[in-house]
Write a structure and sequence with these properties.
This protein is an alpha+beta fold. The protein folds into 2 domains: about 140 residues; about 55 residues. Strands 1, 7, 8, 9, 10, 11 and 12 form a 7-stranded antiparallel sheet that branches. It has a 5-stranded antiparallel sheet with strand order 2-3-4-5-6. The N terminus is likely disordered.
Length: about 210
C-alpha cells in the first residue's frame, strides 16, 4: 500500500459533486444523485420491449429459414422487456426518488447522510470507531466497529476513491494514511486507512 496523495482536484473536477470548506473546520461533499435519470431505465426497457413487439408483428408474414419463429421470439422478448420495465418502475415507486449524498468530514469525525433501501439514514463515525474506507466496484463503503455500511452507492470509481482520501485525511487526522488494493471477504477492493491500523476487520493483505 502507498501513502495517500492529494485528491481534492479530482473531486472538484467532477461535475456531479460539490465540495466546500466548513466554517468550523472540515469539508462538506454533496454528491448529486441525478434525479433526472430516476425513470430513465424503466422507460428505456419498456420502449425497447414495445419496439420488439412491433418488430415481431412486422415479421408475421416472413418466409424463409429461421423466419417462421421470428415473430414469436421477438414478441416474447418484447413482452419480457415490458414486464421487467414495469417491475423496475414499481421498485422506483416503492423506494422513492433518488436523493443526494451529503458527507461532512471534520477532524476526528464523519457524518454521512444518504439513502439505504429507500430510507434516509444519517450515520456518525468517530476516529477510533472507523477502521477503513474502501471502494468496491464504484461504491464507497466504510468499515467500522458496527459493520460495513455504504456511503456512496453510485458515481465514478476514481471520484469515490478521491472522496475517500479527502474524508479519511480529516477523519483520522493526524495519522498518516495509506491506500491500495487489499482482499476483503475474497474480493479485491481499494482501501484507504490509517497506517497505524494493520488490518481492518475482514481484511487480509492482497
Amino acid at each position: 500500500m502507498s501513502v495517500l496523495r492529494g485528491d481534492r482536484e479530482i473531486v472538484e473536477a467532477a461535475q456531479y459533486v460539490s465540495l466546500r470548506d466548513l466554517p468550523e473546520g472540515g469539508i462538506e461533499i454533496v454528491v448529486d444523485a441525478n434525479r433526472e435519470r430516476f425513470w430513465a431505465m424503466p422507460v428505456v426497457v419498456i420502449v425497447a420491449g414495445v419496439v420488439l413487439i412491433i418488430a415481431g408483428r412486422q415479421f408475421g408474414g416472413a418466409r424463409g429459414p429461421g423466419l417462421a419463429t421470428a415473430p414469436f421470439k421477438l414478441g416474447m422478448l418484447g413482452w419480457m422487456n415490458v414486464g421487467i420495465g414495469l417491475l423496475l418502475a414499481l421498485i422506483r415507486l416503492q423506494t422513492g426518488p433518488a436523493r443526494n449524498v451529503v458527507l461532512q468530514a471534520r477532524p476526528g469525525r464523519l457524518t454521512a447522510e444518504r439513502s439505504i433501501a429507500g430510507d434516509r439514514v444519517v450515520s456518525n463515525y468517530v476516529r477510533d470507531e472507523a477502521r477503513a474506507l474502501f471502494v468496491d466496484s464504484n461504491q464507497l463503503w466504510v468499515s467500522a466497529a458496527k459493520g460495513e455500511m455504504p456511503l456512496i452507492a453510485f458515481g465514478e470509481r476514481d471520484v469515490n476513491r478521491a472522496i475517500a482520501g479527502l474524508i479519511g485525511a480529516l477523519l483520522w487526522e493526524p495519522a498518516e494514511l495509506a491506500e491500495g488494493p487489499v482482499s476483503i471477504a475474497g474480493t479485491t477492493r481499494w482501501v484507504v486507512m490509517p497506517r497505524e491500523i494493520e488490518q481492518p476487520p475482514g481484511v487480509s493483505g492482497g
